[in-house]
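Q: Give me the 3D complex with flavin mononucleotide.
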Amino acid sequence: MYKASQGIEATPEEQQATNIVTKYLTQFLNADKVVFAFPLWNMTVPAVLHTYIDYLNQAGHTFKYTAEGPVGLIPNKKVVLLNARGGSYSEGPAAAAEMSVNFISNIMRFFGVQDLSTVIIEGHAQSPDQAASIIETGLKQASDAAVTF
Ligand SMILES: Cc1cc2nc3c(=O)[nH]c(=O)nc-3n(C[C@H](O)[C@H](O)[C@H](O)COP(=O)(O)O)c2cc1C
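A: Here is the predicted complex, encoded as structure tokens.
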């Protein structure tokens, strides 16, 4: 992608990799609304989602650098994050350790997204006796969010 941005010729393998990045980046840029549905895995996102975010992080497309610092380029996209995690991270010291919702939220804000909402189902592994009601409540919140999305 760097070579392409600088007009440097890419090898066939690099061109193939660049085509994949461009395909997903274009799909994301063309969408009015985007749903990210992801679990918390080992305090962060699954590697495939990290790779997807790497595809989207392209200066000149989702953000740009200015003399005043980086500016997001997609302020009008509507984004919702649907997250599930077995433990509870919404409050206390665990909140800072959580790097999936925090990560994707930070990236979306970096891209300039203003309409960002989140539905989290959490604690069903930590509190198995409450798992059924935690999941039921969370799924209801997801259904309600879908009505206005
Ligand atoms: C590989 C792996 C790692 C996980 N790491 C965490 C974790 O760090 N913290 C946590 O609270 N739950 C963790 N979990 C539990 C999942 O977040 C939980 O099962 C969640 O419901 C997964 O979403 P899903 O039900 O949509 O698959 C992990 C699960 C797996 C399979």
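A quick observation: Residues 83 and 101 are 7 Å apart (CA to CA).
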